[in-house]
Amino acid sequence: xYSPLLTVAPLPAAAxxxxxxLVLLYLVGTAAMAAWTFYDAFGWEEKSDSPALWAxxxxxxxxxxxxxxxxxxxxxxxxxxxxxxxxx
Length: 88
Fold this sequence. Notes:
Elements: H1 13-43, H2 51-61, H3 63-73
């Protein structure tokens, strides 16, 4: 039996592709922020609690997670960088 109340109208092709592009952009941007956070947290000598933990926070919370890392996870606020551990 056909019920018009239970059917969902499909999105136009342009709206579906634009929505997919926005989702892809969001996912790529979040992954890039998490990668940068891991790289940045790995470089701090003293207060590096766990780079993987901060990258996970950014992956879970996205932009608010990045702001949390910048406010709470970094030893110095936007000043000069301390020297990196290990690699040159």
